[in-house]
Amino acid sequence: MSELPADWQSALRRRQALLTDERCLRLLHREVPSLRCDRFDTVCWAYWYSEADPSDEIRSHLDALCEAVGVHHWHLHGMSDRGKDPQRRRHWSSSEAPVEWRATEADLCFVMRADRGQSPGLFLDQRIHRRWVREHASGRRVANLFSYTGAFGLAAASGGATQVEQIDVSRSYLDWSAENAQLNELSGQTTEARVDAGLFLQGCRKRNRQFDAIICDPPSFARASRRGTATWRVVDDLPRLVEMALESLTEGGWMLVTSNHEGWSQTQMADGLAKVGARVEPAAGPGGDFETAEDESLLKGFILWR
Fold first, then answer.
1. Looking at the chain, which terminus has fewer C-beta neighbours within 10 angstroms, N or C?
2. Who contacts 145 (Cβ-Cβ below 8 Å, separation ≥6)?
3. Closest C-alpha among 194, 144, 201 to residue 170
4. Which SS3 state, helix, strand or coil, does residue 83 take?
5. First-to-last CA distance in the chain?
6. How big is the CA angle at 181 (ends 243 and 214), to the nearest 5 degrees?
7. Structure pTM?
């Protein structure tokens, strides 16, 4: 640890208990300017929030960080100016870092990929929420809206859900989700639907299709995926989507709604959900590896009960 700067060492000391128990967790959150870093089992994945390329010193520190937490490789992904040029990709890695590997959360295994999007395939700030879903899924029919690589759905399936529908507009992410299900021998409990979340819920209403649990973790913004669907803006569109989802939720059912949108606070999001006609309570939020004393968590979450 002698090669690590003092603030990096302090960040690891704060997470010492989690380092013992979790193979996937955030190692550096806001302790280091322009940098966040997650451990995904045998690989560290860092986010670089600077227009300048990382210095040799930063790369050396990442080498030392990997050694300190017992992993073998790192990836560093550039995150600046994504809104101005969404096609721009800036990425650096340690020698022989894998493009694909496996990572384990609890007893679920996930395929990680370094060549897709801004994340390798698992959002660690949702770890505690996935645990909650798993503990509250037994015997329930579950719809996982905006399913991405299917982690919430797999948590539900492993917790005894009788049916899990993974809903996303991206065929590549649905294929990834199906691969994760197969890896965990849960393919028989999950199905994938390539459809816009709003159109899916409209179809459920027409067919009187009901779920006992719904998970909704939408993007902050998404361009129209096809003709006939509108651009998605979470602040404007989430309350109506939640209202539609509640129409397909059985009595006694629950709905987990989360967002990382920077443009509203936990209180503002709660105010937006207060009018949807359900009992609303705060969700657990991210784990201790994401906590900071001075700032509100970027992740907001609520449980809605029908």
1. N
2. 167, 197, 200, 201, 214, 215, 216, 217, 218, 241, 245
3. 194
4. coil
5. 51
6. 10
7. 0.93
* pLDDT tens profile 15-51: 999 999 999 999 999 999 899 999 999 999 999 999 9
Q: Which has the closest alpha carbon to 165: 150, 185, 183?
A: 150
Report whether 15 contacts 28 (CB < 8 A).
no
What is the per-residue pLDDT for 234? Answer: 82
Strand partners for 125:
none
Q: Token digits for 122? A: 């698992």
Tokens matching residue 7: 């603030």
Sign of CA dihedral 222, 140, 258, 76: negative
Question: What is the per-residue pLDDT across 180-199, written as a single tens digit (0 to 9) for each?
Answer: 999 999 999 999 999 999 99
Domains and CATH numbers, the chain: 6-113 (3.30.750.80), 124-305 (3.40.50.150)
Give me the percent of the chain exceeding a pLDDT of 90: 80
Starting at the edge strand that comes first in sequence, how are the strands of the sheet with 300-305 ordered? Answer: 190-194, 163-168, 141-145, 211-216, 249-259, 300-305, 279-282
